[in-house]
Amino acid sequence: MLVKEEGGFSMVLQLENIQKKFGSFTALEDISFDIHQGEIFGFLGPSGSGKTTTIKIVTGQLAQTNGSATVLGKDTRRINEGIYEQIGIVTDTSGLYEKLSVYDNLKIFADILNVDQARIVILLKKVGLFDHKKKKAGKLSKGQRQRLVLARAILHKPKLLFLDEPTSGLDPTTAKQIQDMFLELKHEGMSIFLTTHNMEEATRLCDTIALLNEGRIVEQGSPQEICLRHNQDKQYRVTLNNREVMKLDDSNASAEFIYENLQNGQIETLHSCEPTLEDVFIKVTGRELL
């Protein structure tokens, strides 16, 4: 059962001062964050930074060395079958039964999870695979496979969904369709734990982000908060009607220039130049997201 907090939100996952050591190597150090009902939480960092280790801890696959972790109110070191029935997981290693049809792939899990088979039809339509329900999973495109894996993960309407690089390698159109699904699930009240190397995806989807580097969280907050916090050299990019592009500093002279040209109808576009999430990550870690 979820514990209601002040304001009516439910805490679905909480990590406090998590440390994980493998022998003398420290993979995670002092990791703390919360995820609430209906929130998309982005956990971002380069390969080898500790993201997968964290996911294994919060899903009960690995025990931390120190600190506490709870999912849906239960200690992750003592997760029982009841908790697994309330979470869904999508990873790059999530497999399918290649020789079975799309429909039968979902039917197997519907039987295991005691889900009404009518839910299968609803989900196949939702992920755009209804017309392929009789096709063998092994014949699907990469984007279709990823949609099927996602459908399987949300078949039982989990309270918390773990997504590990869910749109990696997909074309932009397919990736956007899947991202739209994540936003729809969020609006339905599902909580999502997302890892991704795609900073634009994280900016679009995430309510809160933690930037991870070498096992430590180096920044945390909403995408906008993080970018504005590192917007030390305030500048503005102005495109005039003659297509001339100018970069102006934050000064009275710049304000007067912008005001005059707005009055005269000479400004085509006006944008602030705060750093992107990727800019911030490179700044605080000295590493690119590879």
Automatic annotation (TrEMBL):
Record has Transferase as a keyword: no
A GO CC term assigned to this protein in UniProt: plasma membrane
UniProt-annotated location(s): Cell membrane
SUPFAM superfamilies from the UniProt entry: P-loop containing nucleoside triphosphate hydrolases
PANTHER family reported for this sequence: ABC TRANSPORTER ATP-BINDING PROTEIN (PTHR42711), ABC TRANSPORTER, ATP-BINDING PROTEIN (PTHR42711:SF13)
Start and end residues of each ABC transporter domain: 13-239
Molecular function terms from GO: ATP binding; ATP hydrolysis activity
PROSITE patterns (alphabetical): ABC_TRANSPORTER_1, ABC_TRANSPORTER_2
UniProt main location, coarse: membrane
InterPro entries: AAA+_ATPase, ABC_transporter-like_ATP-bd, ABC_transporter-like_CS, ABC_transporter_ATP-binding, P-loop_NTPase
UniProt keyword terms in alphabetical order: ATP-binding, Cell membrane, Membrane, Nucleotide-binding, Translocase, Transport
Annotated protein name in UniProt: ABC transporter ATP-binding protein
